[in-house]
Amino acid sequence: MTPLSRFEQFSALFPNEKLFRWKQLSHAFFDPVVKNWQGVTVLPKPMREELAKQIPWVSYRDSKVFSSANEDTYKAILTLADKKQVETVLMANKRDQWTICVSSQVGCAMKCAFCATGKMGLIRSLSADEIMDQYRFWRAFLNEGAIGESRLQGARISNVVFMGMGEPLANYEAVKTTLKTWLSNTDLGPTHITVSTVGVLPILEKLLSDPEWPAVRMAISLHSADPKTRHELVPSSHDLFIPQLKKWAKKYLKNLGNRRHHLTFEYVMLQNVNDTDHHAETLTNLVRSLGQIKVNLIPYNFTDSEFQRSADDRIERFKTFLETHGVDVMVRRTMGDDIAAACGQLITKEGSGRV
Question: Which of the following is catalytic: 101, 108, 115, 343?
Answer without folding.
Answer: 343
